[in-house]
Amino acid sequence: RFFKELEARHQNNIFIDDISDIVEKHTSSTFDPYVKYCTNEVYQQRTLQKLLATNPAFKEVLSRIESHEDCRNLPMISFLILPMQRVTRLPLLMDTICQKTPKDSPRYENCKQALKEVSKLVRLCNEGARKMERTEMMYTINSQLEFKIKPFPLVSSSRWLVKRGELTAYVEDTGLFSKRTSKQQVYFFLFNDVLIITKKKSEESYNVTDYSLRDQLVVQQCDSEDLTSSPVKNTSAMLYLRQSSAAHLFRLAVLSNHAGEKVEMLLGTETQSDRARWITALGQDRDGQKTDRTTLTQVEIIRTYTAKQPDELSLQVADVVLVYQKVNDGWYEGERLRDGERGWFPTECAKEITCRATIDKNMERMGRLLGLETNV
């Protein structure tokens, strides 16, 4: 119906003077299938992967279809994500029309209203997809945790996973005649409101050893040369840490754990970017979003990237991202211009924007798009 109305206007006159009324009409009334589609997209991808892995006949037929010239050598998954890619492009296209329409023109208000409606639609699509994925993830994690301490109800509609992963914890053991440092593996589940510390039993089983509310966490970066104020103070311990493979260290102070006690931890990661990502995630509520966006580096995405972890950002070619952090081993942390979503992505997917006029234009566009998002 949307396409037919656009086509009819094109047939009336090859020079189309306005489409804002058509965009506003359809995004506010007939585009609900986009919301449903995006909400369930995570299940759709999983179903496809399951069929490919378990059903040889399905895999064979799909390969035959994909090799057809009409598919242009593209896999089925690329067609399945097309509706999601299209709907996220609509606000940018509508914003361009806004930009090209004279502000004193009677059509300008129509453009703004259409942009508002299409931005609202995309927000609903994103929220639906995120909520479905988060809820399913919570139930999965809940079934894998075994509490060795007083348990608490994990599943909640207002709780979601921010980051998870294995870290090396350095512990000082005090013996009868000496102190020695040992290391042990811990597995963190960081949610938006709570940190759960576990020991991994298997790929699908974890013993909970401690937990803390997120507002009770204080995180601080440290280097292996600067351990004098860490829980590990003696010379042999410092030597041990310097020789250790996990050289990227940071401190985590839990002001009040499940038992109301203060706990200090010295933690190590295998890569520099892992440390940066953990420090960012654990300390995120304290960074205050006070950064002046106009001073940030802008990059354009030159290669599609699909997020593999909760703290990563999925990106499409031509997306513009504002960079908050760059880590030397190949990762950016940034904010997606089209919707303000924040996360990590590989530097190889992006190219820095150096043209001042383009940078200024992107900032104006972000102001319009995000300004509308908060008013819908």
TrEMBL record:
<feature type="domain" description="PH">
    <location>
        <begin position="160"/>
        <end position="287"/>
    </location>
</feature>
<dbReference type="InterPro" id="IPR036028">
    <property type="entry name" value="SH3-like_dom_sf"/>
</dbReference>
<dbReference type="Pfam" id="PF00621">
    <property type="entry name" value="RhoGEF"/>
</dbReference>
<keyword id="KW-0728">SH3 domain</keyword>
<dbReference type="InterPro" id="IPR035797">
    <property type="entry name" value="ARHGEF16/ARHGEF26_SH3"/>
</dbReference>
<dbReference type="GO" id="GO:0005085">
    <property type="term" value="F:guanyl-nucleotide exchange factor activity"/>
</dbReference>
<feature type="domain" description="DH">
    <location>
        <begin position="1"/>
        <end position="128"/>
    </location>
</feature>
<dbReference type="Pfam" id="PF22697">
    <property type="entry name" value="SOS1_NGEF_PH"/>
</dbReference>
<feature type="domain" description="SH3">
    <location>
        <begin position="294"/>
        <end position="355"/>
    </location>
</feature>
<dbReference type="InterPro" id="IPR047270">
    <property type="entry name" value="PH_ephexin"/>
</dbReference>
<dbReference type="InterPro" id="IPR011993">
    <property type="entry name" value="PH-like_dom_sf"/>
</dbReference>
<protein>
    <submittedName>
        <fullName>Rho guanine nucleotide exchange factor 26</fullName>
    </submittedName>
</protein>
<dbReference type="InterPro" id="IPR035899">
    <property type="entry name" value="DBL_dom_sf"/>
</dbReference>
<dbReference type="GO" id="GO:0042995">
    <property type="term" value="C:cell projection"/>
</dbReference>
<dbReference type="InterPro" id="IPR055251">
    <property type="entry name" value="SOS1_NGEF_PH"/>
</dbReference>
<dbReference type="InterPro" id="IPR001452">
    <property type="entry name" value="SH3_domain"/>
</dbReference>
<dbReference type="Pfam" id="PF00018">
    <property type="entry name" value="SH3_1"/>
</dbReference>
<keyword id="KW-0966">Cell projection</keyword>
<dbReference type="InterPro" id="IPR001849">
    <property type="entry name" value="PH_domain"/>
</dbReference>
<dbReference type="InterPro" id="IPR000219">
    <property type="entry name" value="DH_dom"/>
</dbReference>
<dbReference type="InterPro" id="IPR047271">
    <property type="entry name" value="Ephexin-like"/>
</dbReference>
